[in-house]
Amino acid sequence: MAKLSDLIIGHPDVTSFAELEKLVQHLGASGEVFMEFDLKPDYRDTPRKWEWQLEAAFTRGLDYE
Questions:
Q1: pTM of the full predicted structure?
Q2: How far apart are the C-alpha atoms of 50 and 15, rounded to whole Å?
Q3: How far from 26 is each of 30, 34, 48, 49, CA to CA, in Å?
Q4: Which of 6, 15, 32, 57 could join 24 via S-S bond, C-beta 3.0 to 4.6 A?
């Protein structure tokens, strides 16, 4: 199971929610089955319903680009 906190720590070059969302899409496309959203991303552009957005990005992967 992947954790959002590990993803953020492992990619210090990611500086916005939009970049994080793209990273989460790649993780979903890589075959990862579960993801735990264990902390709120601390980016200036993090939306109010960030969990739903990241869950959708993880589920759809890169199929809808």
A1: 0.89
A2: 15
A3: 6, 13, 22, 20
A4: 57
Contact 21, 52 (CB under 8 A): no
Q: Are 41 and 50 contacting, i.e. CB atoms less than 8 angstroms apart? A: yes
Q: Which residues of the chain have pLDDT under 70?
A: 63-65
The tokens for 54 are: 């990241």
Q: Across-strand partners of 2?
A: 35
Positive or negative torsion for Cα 42, 45, 51, 54 = negative
pLDDT digits (tens, 9 = 90+) for 39-56: 999 999 999 999 999 999
11, amino acid identity = H
Neighbours of 34 (CB within 10 A): 8
Instruction: Answer yes or no: are the C-beta atoms of 46 and 30 closer than 8 Å.
Output: no
